Each structure stands twice: as C-alpha cells, then as structure tokens.
Amino acid sequence: MNILDMSIICSIFILFIILIRALFLYKIRKYTFVILWLIVMIRLILPIRIESPINVFVLLDNIVEKEQGLIEQPTSEMIPKTILVEKINDTGHNVLYTRRYPLQIIYYTIGILIGLRFFVLYIKTYRKLREAIPIKDNVFINALINKFRLRRKVSVLYYDRIQSPITYGVIRPKILLPKSLDLSNLQQLNYIITHEMVHIKRYDMILNHLSHLCVCLHWFNPLVWIMYLLFDKDREIACDEKVLSLLGENEKAYYAKSLIEFASLEERVCFMNHNYSRNNIKERIVSVMKFKKSTLYTSILAGVLIIGSTLVFASEKPSSKEVACGNFYMTNEELTEERVKELRDKYGNDLIILTEKDQVQKIDREEYTVQEYEKEVAAFKSEENQNRYISWYIEKYNATKAEATDNFQKIADKMTSDLEKLRRGTLLIYKPSTSLLKDKQGNPIYDEEGMHQYVSIGGSMDLEQLQFTSTVGDTVFGPYSYIEKDKMKKDIQSYLDDQVTKGIITQEEADELYENRHNECSQ
Amino acid sequence: MKAKIFDSELQVMEILWKEGDRSAGQIAKILKEKIDWNRNTTYTVIKKCIKKGIIERHEPNFICKAVIKKEEVQQYETLQLIDKMFDGSSTKFFAAFLDHSNLSNEEIANLKKLVEKLK
User: Fold this and answer.
1) Of A76, A155, A235, B79, which has the highest C-beta tally within 10 A?
2) Domain check: are B11 and B61 in the same one?
3) Within a domain: B16
4) Residue B7 to chain A, least CA–CA distance (Å)
C-alpha cells in the first residue's frame, strides 16, 4: 500500500469524523474524537491491515458494480513509482537501470523540509524553555500533582517570557507557569495544574508529535492538515472535559472564566507543547459550559462510533477481493520466487502477477520469444479455455456471465497488446519461473480450470517512450530513443576517437572513459 | 545597560554577585544543585550574558566576572516598572507605595533617597 492510497482512504475517514464531530461534539465524550483521530493517524503512518467484510472498499465496489456492472480494476498508479529499463552493455551482461520520477523527489523533498521545520522549531522552543526556574516546595502544587499518582516525575517551573502556562516533555514532563501568575490564587492554580496534569497523564505530547509526523508524510493532502488542526483542538476540549469531571460540574463557570483570562494573553511561542488556553477558546468555552457527566447512553454511542468506524474505514477489504480483476494481481511490491509462490498459494495457481517494480532480477528472467508468446496468447484465447475461465470466474467471484466474459476479454486484450509490443521489440515479457509453471517437456502448464500461468513482469513497460542519455567524462550524449541505442554508442566512439586523433587524450584514456561512461534512461 | 535581563540570566548573575568570580564550570555545578539546570543550559545563559555585556570572561580558566552591580540591575528594573506602570512618573510610583504598605520611616527615607538618585 503506498502513501497516496493511504492518504485517499484516510481522507474519507477524516471527512466522516468531521461530520460526526459537527453532529455530536457537545453530545458525547470528547475523548471519543481524540481516539478517532488517533486511529486515523495510526492508519496514516503504519500500513497495518485489519480485514473486515464491511469496509469502505467493499461498499465502494458495490456502488461501482451497480453503476457500471463491472468490478473496478486496482489502480497501478503509484507514488513512488519506478520504471524498469533494460540496457545491454558491451560485455553482454544485462544491467538494470532505474530512475525515479521527479514526482517522488518532490514528495520526499517537501516532506523532509516540513519535518526539518518542525524539528528546528522544537529545538528552538526547547532551548528557550529549559531556562525556566523550578518552583520548589510549594505544598499546594505538590499535593495536586501527587493526586495523579504518576510514575514520571513532574516538575513545575516559572518562566518570565511566557504569558500563559505551558507543558512539555514526555518522560520528565515540565509544567511552566508564567512568572506573572499569582501563586496565591489557589483556585486558578488548581485549574491550571489539573489541566496540565491531565495532558501529561494522557501523553498528549506524544500525540502532538504523531500529528506532526502525519503532516510530514501526507503534506499534499489538505484534509490531513485539517485533521492536524482539529486534533489539536479536540485534545484541549477533551482535556477540559476531564478536568471538569475531576473538579465537579459546579466549577464550570469559574473554569471557563479562568480560560478566558489566559486567552487574552495568548502568544505563539508554544509549538511543541500544551498551552493552557489557545486560539480555539470559543469552542472550548461552549464545550465547558455544556459539560455533563457522561451517561451510559453517551458511552455506548461513543463505543459504537469508535468500533464501527474502525471496521469501516481503518480496515482492508478481505484479501480474496484484492485480485479484483479476475486472476490478475497487480503489485509494486518486491517480487521474489518465494513471494510469487506465496501469492499463488494464497490466490490459486492461476494467478497472473503484474508488476512495475525493478525487482525482476530477483526471479528467473528468461524472456519470451514472439513465437512462444503467440502460442501463449492463442492458448489463452481458445474457446475451450474461455469457457473454463468464465465458469471458474463465475463460481469464484459469484459473478454474472457478462462480468466474467468482460473480465476474460480484458485479459485477452492486454495479452494481445503486449504481444503487439513484443513484435515491435518495445516490450520484454519474462517467462515465469520454470519450476512453477512448466511441465517436463517445457510446455506451459494448464491447471484443471484451464488457466495458463505466466508472470508478465514489466508488462506496461513501453520502451518506445524511453529516452537514453550517456555521460562520458563531462560530455552528455543524448537523449536518444530506444531504437537509436546503437547510434548512441557510435556517436560516443567517434567522439572519443576524434579526441585521440587531436591528441587531447590517449587511446587508453579514451577506453577508460568509454568503460566508465554513465548511462541513464528516463521516460 | 540596554537589554532587559531575564530571570535565567539573573540566576547566573546572583552567583557571581554573591560568591565572586567563578568559572563557567563552577557556575554550572552550583546551578545544577540549586535549580537542576543541566550544564548546557547554564553555558547558553552565560553566553547570552556575555553577549549582553553583563559578564566578562577572562583567562586563565575562563573565569567569569560580573560587569554590572546588583544595584544597577535593581535600578534598571525599578525604572522599567515606573515606566510601565506609573507612566514614567516616580511621584506616582512613590505615592502608590505609601498608600498600600506599612513601610517604616527608615524604609521611606531610603525610598526617597532612591527616587532622588533616579531623578
């Protein structure tokens, strides 16, 4: 699963949470939203799989099927994508060249820049805040902290360059109070320390960093940025809620007033930490004033929301559906013999694996000749095979005959166009591993369902589109098309010969330059 | 003195005022014990003090020396307070003090002296 797919799936989830949030924000426990955001974030960061029969893919598939009467083909559009090119050097060895698309470079560059920006801000803030001076032996504060019974040692400090309280640090959390804070106002001090302690207890600082990571990975997705902002707000709102449940409902008006007081003093030094009162003050005040102890009803609703949305949005469709187009399996993962075998064990021996990744050298790479492949195509398209395929497909996917025929046609078309490219010499089709797919006479194996088995690797590799350049010393040759590859060699040779004749380099140096030339290929 | 001196910097200055000239390492040790600052924090603060021109560092052993006196800082802070809270009027400041505190005669006399000095 690549980053773009992950982003798209999560976007639906994020939209869903925004909707739920708009409907239920003041009705259910606010921590529900923190958990929901957390699930999205885990999903954005880790490519873990949870299978569920009622997930968003299946739902979408059903809609598409109903509308178009066919099953969507898995997309092969991928960032990061690499293309595979074969180049034969003079010694006759095959060398594989890959070149990354510029898109991928842009993706990584911006992601890393955003990450660096966060890191620099973090370090700057940290270096400023560590100059705070501890408040020791304040009996009232110490008692408040001890009430939480944390294993981690929490220290409270004062600092003369902030206007409202801040918390930072995960392992040794620190609560920073502004120097101007009146420590004799015990009611306010109680609110502030309790609020910050709830953040510390809930490890909200780690969640904050996680959301930064999400933004770095998915910077191109505006919904992830919206999530980032809302997640921040919701942590504060959830924290306020917890504070009130600890202090008692009667305190809510006073607590709200205390928040307002600090809101007017707000400033923007606090990047990596939790601030007692932040820009979302209005929503927070409303939330505080509407606070009610949670009831059984609201707890159940919260539970249903969390479990339900995890199943629907954060899961994969069951894997058998993954081979959405008949027995075609498209992938950009690493393909080794073992992996091919594993896939076949999982999906059946009739699996056709299409890959676009430069992993071909890892498996047996014998090429098809035109005649051999013609035989393959003819065998596949034979009426007998077609009938077997269609009935097999109908049974396996519970499909209609039209769908099965359509699916068969798609594969046949693909093979025909591949064959055409093979004839033109612009496509290389590799034979499948012999051990898996051929009988003792070397004929292709057809299993009982009549499926032929082959692996078309680099099936979409269109050599006509490719351009070659070669760098010799400081001189760049090209671009040349695939057909002009021989011309490129000649050009380089005559250039070097010319240099030797002119006496600029010796023949030995020329040979060395030729040997060390650097070839590149792009689309 | 041009820039405001932060509390963190005052912590370092206090040591130099109280204990005389000390090396950066010694200051770091004292502050580690007193307010649990790590060595790097103290060094950073000392560097800022040097930049502000309130500490000078001499060979040998990089001994730090306070360039300004505690009284100068007190004076500066008082002036700042008067500027900020009493529209720069020392009379208002003085009046406010007399209104709300039970100062002894001696203290009042001292304050008067201070105000004279500031004028």
Assistant:
1) A235
2) yes
3) yes
4) 6
